[in-house]
Write a structure and sequence with these properties.
The protein has about 475 residues and is an alpha+beta fold. The chain has one domain. It has 9 helices and 25 strands. The protein has helices at about 80-90, 125-145, 225-240, 265-280, 335-340, 345-365, 395-400, 430-435, 440-460; strands spanning about 5-10, 10-25, 45, 50-55, 65-70, 100-105, 150-160, 160-165, 165-170, 175, 190-195, 200-210, 220-225, 240-245, 255, 290-300, 300-310, 315, 315-325, 370-380, 380-385, 390, 405-410, 420, 465. The strands form 8 sheets. Strands 6-5-4-2-7-11-12-14 form an 8-stranded mixed sheet, with helices on both faces. Strands 19-20-21-23 form a 4-stranded mixed sheet, with helices on one face. Strand 20 (about 370-380) and strand 21 form a beta hairpin. Helix 5 (about 335-340) packs antiparallel against helix 6. It starts with 6 loop residues before the first strand and ends with a strand.
Length: about 475
């Protein structure tokens, strides 16, 4: 049975990998209004520190690829995102296709928009962004410098933290953002990447899961990474490795209990996810192994005997920055939105108009907008990042089409514009539809384009270099 085709192995990559972290906690008193319903505008204390964690994958003779995960919410302006990313690209002389700055999407972080300097605590935003810029560069450099021969292996688990959050209002003709027990069952897929040195020491754990970090909301006055903070603490204490949260396609997904100021709830959510991560890690094969069917053992029943063997790993590393033209909805002009903003004192309406204005300024006045996205092939996995908030249909469909590989999908990567809800929701009175600048059908177009891009990158030359460690 030595040549039996029956075997199991984790999607993997073998190469040089490094990880590093810096703290990016803002000062108390910084402007931190993320909710229209909030009655306060400044952060009064810190729940948990905010961090930037970097993973660098470095093939000899080639530019590294660098993925950074930051405990921040979302970019309000396109130029602010590009200023930070351009600085990193220039400082490290990296290709734009090979860098992703990803936000974990906490809704309890500081503002990262210098336009908010007009408000209380807003004078701290620009100095804070400069600090974050330097920390991003430092974390990326340290990750590259620390790269060593390592394995990245992916295991798939489940976590029930995320629930459907598109709830029909029983008293009006609209859909609310809140737990819907009768909604479409949520995508509970948990993808965990285990990075170990060739001797088997843990370096990093990558956690890709789709759930909005909106536990702490309008009554919360603390800076917090929300549930990813407690999840990281639990995983890191157990594994002695840096843990990165990679926020998945969660347009319609959030925890059942949310919109609270109770940090114990956020920490409980984090532990729920953290224990699911640890369970997935416990269920993975030992590093650099595969599980082979070897023989039949006759007993009371005929028994199939499986044994461990040394695995062969791919060292294929490719990075592409692609783009798609998305059709715009009919939106008010920037001047119209400014006029409406100047004419109202309603705090909720101000928040909604501000968001619409910044989106309009980001995408312009054309009928279509060119949206970038990033596709990396890392061994037997695909890492895909895009700047919008896609519904989970994106990751579900990509994983259905490519079941043989591990597919990481990240919202809020290298920017932020708007939601990508499915076409059927455009007939509804629902926030993701009237928030987004994108017309019906754009999510489906994005799925098709991502499938094409993944197929193209997998067919690129040179062929994978496979070897055994």
């Amino acid at each position: 049975m030595a040549n039996s085709p029956l075997q199991f192995k984790h999607p993997s990559y073998c190469g040089r990998i490094g990880a590093a972290r810096e703290e990016i906690t803002p000062p108390v008193g910084i402007y931190a209004k993320n909710w229209g319903a909030a009655k306060h505008v400044v952060a009064e204390d810190i729940h948990r520190p905010l961090t930037v964690t970097a993973i660098a994958i470095c093939e000899p003779g080639d530019e590294p690829i660098v993925l950074l995960s930051l405990d921040l919410g979302w970019w309000r302006r396109r130029k602010d995102e590009w200023a930070m990313r351009r600085s990193l690209l220039e400082e490290l002389q990296l290709n734009a296709a090979r860098v992703i700055i990803h936000f974990t999407h906490t809704h309890a972080g500081p503002s990262v928009c210098p336009e908010d300097s007009l408000y209380a605590g807003g004078e701290m935003i620009e100095p804070y962004l400069e600090m974050v810029r330097l920390k991003v560069i430092s974390a990326a450099k340290k990750a590259i410098e620390s790269a060593e021969p390592a394995l990245l292996e992916w295991g798939t688990g489940k976590c029930s933290l995320a629930q459907n959050r598109d709830m029909p209002d029983p008293e009006s003709n609209r859909i609310l953002c809140g737990y819907n027990p009768e909604g479409i069952p949520p995508d509970d897929t948990l993808l965990v990447g285990r990075v170990t040195t060739i001797p088997g020491k843990n370096i990093a754990v990558l956690v890709n899961y789709a759930c909005h970090p909106t536990t702490l909301a309008f009554d919360n006055r603390l800076i917090s990474p929300d549930f990813p903070g407690a999840m990281r603490e639990l995983v890191e204490n157990k594994t002695a490795a840096l843990c990165l949260y990679l926020h998945g396609a969660s347009g319609e997904l959030a925890a059942r209990e949310q919109y609270t100021a109770d940090i114990a709830v956020a920490d409980r959510h984090g532990r729920e996810l953290g224990y699911a991560v640890l369970s997935t890690l416990e269920g993975m094969l030992p590093p650099s192994t595969k599980f082979n069917y070897t023989e039949v053992k006759e007993s009371g029943a005929p028994l199939a005997v499986w044994k461990y063997d040394t695995a062969v790993h791919s060292s294929r590393l490719e990075a592409v920055q692609d783009q798609i033209e998305l059709i715009m909805q009919s939106l008010p002009s920037a001047s119209q939105l400014r006029s409406e903003l100047d004419a109202t004192e309603d705090l909720v309406l101000q928040e909604r108009l501000n968001r619409k204005l910044r989106i309009r300024e980001g995408v312009g006045d054309a009928e279509t907008a060119s949206m970038p996205f990033w596709v990396w092939q890392v061994g037997d996995s695909i890492i895909l990042g895009h700047p919008n908030e896609a519904y989970s249909h994106l990751q579900i469909e990509l994983r259905r089409v490519f079941p043989e590989i591990a597919i990481v999908v990240m919202n809020c990567a290298n920017g932020h514009f708007g939601y990508l809800p499915p076409t059927l929701l455009y007939a509804e009175n629902i926030y993701p539809v009237w928030q987004t600048p994108f017309a019906a059908g754009c999510l489906e177009l994005m799925i098709e384009r991502c499938i094409d891009s993944i197929e193209q990158i997998r067919s690129m030359q040179p062929s994978p270099r496979n070897y055994t460690e």
